[in-house]
């Protein structure tokens, strides 16, 4: 990749997935807008117009099948389902009828036919209602062919590229092939959104929330250097900057499963996983166990509660990857950005503050009972050490009720997540019941700063570097220590190597993160003694602002610069 003669320009956004990489820009085509209601001139042959619709649908189907054949895992399944929708004649015949009966232009006919089909699926509810997204996708693709517009979705290019988009839906992110898309930049999106979490899991540098004033400057083919750690995009980078990026990319660091500070104080470095495949790759990456198994990820698409047998199978797959090791299983964390149709109420006005996570047991206590039963059965089949915890515990009554219930199913080690400020402040009382806690810094930050974690416009508030968040983490650790209970962190803060040092200094015993972050966090922890972690934690907690805390700690960790972190 040759540097250009133009002057380098530095642009900023929110870095959500670390790494430094350069590549040519490929912009994601904007979505299709609603075509105007227009009719065909009387000279046009209606049969030919109807044929055009059928041919466009065929082309879309073939294109999707080709992409599916190249894709892997979840991405392949998504593409196959969409291809089936394109092959279904319901949409095309209904659009053709509108051309014949009302002489509508084909693109408008397809738009209206898709609207009727989506309404029909929506009214059926459950799995069928979920398919409305595929209808919209197929509709937009057929209209793109009919109007000769760029195909919506992720561009398909022979060479690796930096994807630039307005936003990426989780379904788009699932389709990203890390061999083709080397990094992405979006004008919208927040730091702990699902998309950002997936980018980190893929190990793909990513910058979100740049605003359109940045993305509008990036055109197809422009060479950019993306620094996902600092959140900067350099347009037309210098040869020197490109050389450094290449050098860092060629250094491969590994984690040997021995997390500790320089003076040998063990810090368990664990993985966040969502299914058996993720657990297997985390084990290969050296994770010392699982610090957060997000069980709801196994069932996000399901309209009905999964059977106990289906749950046993899903949990067993994860436990089997860690024989003899700790696996912290979180009971279903449904609600807000992770609705489960069988457990949450889609009409709630304020879902992040609603009947979500552990609170769903108020309405549907048996769902938790079934889950605990399945987990106990899966544990009996494997050699993993199961620790079970409930999300969003807010009071001592809840901590007691949950841990009593879990133990009644034979699950010996029962704890809680601390992600509501009340739980951190009341930790000494909650630990009378809980054997351990894991701090979910994503939600803890959202609730203490009163800032929606999905909003890029509030990203400066939504960071674990906020001294208010750090003070709550300290309160949680202080509440646990008289009881001798371990506290871990499993939110995204654990994957920031500088913040990890602070967390250890505050008294956190384990850090759980996407497996890709393990080598970086390990390398930085191994460069400092525990006393230094405590000193840096005190610096951060006394800082006036999040930026001051980050800057003060980073200035004391020269290894970050050396490793390009
Ligand atoms: C958290 O809130 O920090 C957490 C780990 O849970 P989730 O991101 O799944 O809400
Ligand atoms: Mg959470």
TrEMBL record:
<dbReference type="InterPro" id="IPR018274">
    <property type="entry name" value="PEP_util_AS"/>
</dbReference>
<dbReference type="GO" id="GO:0005737">
    <property type="term" value="C:cytoplasm"/>
</dbReference>
<comment type="function">
    <text>General (non sugar-specific) component of the phosphoenolpyruvate-dependent sugar phosphotransferase system (sugar PTS). This major carbohydrate active-transport system catalyzes the phosphorylation of incoming sugar substrates concomitantly with their translocation across the cell membrane. Enzyme I transfers the phosphoryl group from phosphoenolpyruvate (PEP) to the phosphoryl carrier protein (HPr).</text>
</comment>
<keyword id="KW-0479">Metal-binding</keyword>
<dbReference type="InterPro" id="IPR036637">
    <property type="entry name" value="Phosphohistidine_dom_sf"/>
</dbReference>
<keyword id="KW-0762">Sugar transport</keyword>
<dbReference type="InterPro" id="IPR008279">
    <property type="entry name" value="PEP-util_enz_mobile_dom"/>
</dbReference>
<keyword id="KW-0670">Pyruvate</keyword>
<keyword id="KW-0598">Phosphotransferase system</keyword>
<dbReference type="Pfam" id="PF05524">
    <property type="entry name" value="PEP-utilisers_N"/>
</dbReference>
<dbReference type="InterPro" id="IPR036618">
    <property type="entry name" value="PtsI_HPr-bd_sf"/>
</dbReference>
<dbReference type="InterPro" id="IPR008731">
    <property type="entry name" value="PTS_EIN"/>
</dbReference>
<feature type="binding site">
    <location>
        <position position="330"/>
    </location>
    <ligand>
        <name>phosphoenolpyruvate</name>
    </ligand>
</feature>
<feature type="binding site">
    <location>
        <position position="443"/>
    </location>
    <ligand>
        <name>Mg(2+)</name>
    </ligand>
</feature>
<keyword id="KW-0808">Transferase</keyword>
<feature type="binding site">
    <location>
        <position position="419"/>
    </location>
    <ligand>
        <name>Mg(2+)</name>
    </ligand>
</feature>
<dbReference type="InterPro" id="IPR040442">
    <property type="entry name" value="Pyrv_kinase-like_dom_sf"/>
</dbReference>
<feature type="active site" description="Tele-phosphohistidine intermediate">
    <location>
        <position position="194"/>
    </location>
</feature>
<feature type="domain" description="PEP-utilising enzyme C-terminal">
    <location>
        <begin position="260"/>
        <end position="529"/>
    </location>
</feature>
<dbReference type="Pfam" id="PF00391">
    <property type="entry name" value="PEP-utilizers"/>
</dbReference>
<dbReference type="InterPro" id="IPR050499">
    <property type="entry name" value="PEP-utilizing_PTS_enzyme"/>
</dbReference>
<dbReference type="InterPro" id="IPR015813">
    <property type="entry name" value="Pyrv/PenolPyrv_kinase-like_dom"/>
</dbReference>
<feature type="binding site">
    <location>
        <position position="294"/>
    </location>
    <ligand>
        <name>phosphoenolpyruvate</name>
    </ligand>
</feature>
<protein>
    <recommendedName>
        <fullName>Phosphoenolpyruvate-protein phosphotransferase</fullName>
        <ecNumber>2.7.3.9</ecNumber>
    </recommendedName>
</protein>
<comment type="similarity">
    <text>Belongs to the PEP-utilizing enzyme family.</text>
</comment>
<keyword id="KW-0418">Kinase</keyword>
<keyword id="KW-0460">Magnesium</keyword>
<dbReference type="GO" id="GO:0008965">
    <property type="term" value="F:phosphoenolpyruvate-protein phosphotransferase activity"/>
</dbReference>
<dbReference type="InterPro" id="IPR006318">
    <property type="entry name" value="PTS_EI-like"/>
</dbReference>
<dbReference type="Pfam" id="PF02896">
    <property type="entry name" value="PEP-utilizers_C"/>
</dbReference>
<dbReference type="GO" id="GO:0009401">
    <property type="term" value="P:phosphoenolpyruvate-dependent sugar phosphotransferase system"/>
</dbReference>
<dbReference type="InterPro" id="IPR000121">
    <property type="entry name" value="PEP_util_C"/>
</dbReference>
<dbReference type="GO" id="GO:0046872">
    <property type="term" value="F:metal ion binding"/>
</dbReference>
<keyword id="KW-0963">Cytoplasm</keyword>
<feature type="binding site">
    <location>
        <begin position="442"/>
        <end position="443"/>
    </location>
    <ligand>
        <name>phosphoenolpyruvate</name>
    </ligand>
</feature>
<dbReference type="GO" id="GO:0016301">
    <property type="term" value="F:kinase activity"/>
</dbReference>
<feature type="domain" description="Phosphotransferase system enzyme I N-terminal">
    <location>
        <begin position="12"/>
        <end position="131"/>
    </location>
</feature>
<feature type="domain" description="PEP-utilising enzyme mobile">
    <location>
        <begin position="158"/>
        <end position="231"/>
    </location>
</feature>
<dbReference type="InterPro" id="IPR024692">
    <property type="entry name" value="PTS_EI"/>
</dbReference>
<keyword id="KW-0813">Transport</keyword>
<feature type="active site" description="Proton donor">
    <location>
        <position position="490"/>
    </location>
</feature>
<feature type="binding site">
    <location>
        <position position="453"/>
    </location>
    <ligand>
        <name>phosphoenolpyruvate</name>
    </ligand>
</feature>
């Amino acid at each position: 990749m040759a540097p250009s003669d133009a002057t380098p320009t530095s642009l900023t956004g929110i870095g959500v997935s670390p790494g430094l990489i350069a590549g040519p820009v490929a912009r994601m085509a904007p979505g299709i807008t609603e075509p105007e209601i227009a009719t065909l001139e009387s000279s046009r042959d209606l049969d030919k117009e109807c044929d055009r619709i059928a041919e466009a649908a065929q082309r879309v189907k073939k294109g999707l099948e080709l992409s599916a054949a190249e894709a892997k895992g979840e991405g392949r399944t998504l593409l196959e389902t969409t291809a089936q929708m394109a092959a279904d004649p319901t949409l095309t015949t209904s659009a053709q009828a509108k051309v014949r009966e009302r002489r509508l232009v084909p693109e408008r006919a397809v738009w209206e036919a898709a609207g009727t089909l989506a309404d029909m699926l929506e009214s059926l509810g459950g799995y069928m209602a979920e398919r409305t997204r595929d209808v919209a996708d197929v509709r937009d693709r057929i209209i793109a062919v009919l109007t000769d517009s760029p195909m919506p979705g992720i561009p398909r290019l022979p060479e690796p590229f930096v994807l630039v988009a307005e936003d990426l839906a989780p379904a788009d992110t699932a389709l990203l092939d890390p061999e083709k898309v080397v990094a992405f930049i979006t004008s919208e999106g927040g730091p702990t959104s699902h998309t950002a979490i997936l980018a980190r899991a893929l190990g793909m540098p990513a910058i979100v929330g740049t605003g359109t004033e940045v993305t509008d400057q990036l055109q197809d083919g422009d060479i950019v250097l993306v620094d996902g750690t600092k959140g900067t995009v350099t347009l037309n980078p210098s040869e020197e900057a490109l050389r450094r990026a290449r050098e860092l990319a060629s250094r491969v660091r590994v984690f040997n499963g021995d997390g500790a500070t320089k003076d040998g104080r063990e810090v368990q470095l664990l993985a966040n996983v969502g299914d058996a495949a993720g657990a297997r790759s985390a084990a290969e990456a050296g994770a010392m166990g699982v610090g957060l198994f997000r069980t709801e990820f196994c069932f996000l698409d399901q309209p009905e509660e999964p059977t106990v047998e289906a749950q046993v199978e899903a949990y067993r797959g994860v436990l089997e990857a860690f024989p003899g090791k700790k696996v912290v299983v979180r009971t279903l964390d449904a609600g807000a950005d992770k609705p489960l149709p069988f457990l949450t109420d889609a009409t709630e006005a304020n879902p992040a503050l609603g009947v979500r996570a552990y609170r769903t047991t108020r309405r549907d206590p048996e769902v938790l009972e079934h889950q605990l039963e399945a987990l106990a059965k899966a544990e009996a089949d494997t050699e993993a050490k199961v620790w079970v915890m409930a999300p969003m515990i807010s009071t001592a009554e809840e901590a007691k009720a949950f841990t009593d219930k879990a133990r009644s199913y034979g699950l010996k080690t029962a704890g809680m997540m601390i992600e509501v400020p009340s739980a951190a402040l009341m930790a000494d009382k909650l630990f009378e019941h809980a054997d351990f806690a894991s701090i979910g810094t994503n939600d803890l930050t959202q609730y203490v700063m009163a800032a929606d974690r999905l909003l890029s416009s509030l990203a400066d508030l939504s960071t674990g570097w906020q001294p208010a968040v750090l003070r709550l983490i300290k309160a949680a650790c202080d509440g646990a220590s008289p009881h001798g209970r371990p506290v871990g962190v499993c939110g995204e803060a654990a994957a920031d190597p500088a913040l990890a040092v602070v967390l250890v200094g505050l008294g956190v015993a384990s850090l759980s993160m996407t497996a890709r972050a393990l080598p970086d966090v390990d390398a930085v922890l191994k460069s400092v003694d525990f006393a230094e972690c405590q000193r840096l934690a005190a610096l951060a907690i006394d800082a006036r602002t999040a930026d001051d805390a980050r800057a003060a700690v980073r200035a004391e960790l020269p290894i970050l610069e050396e490793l390009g972190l």
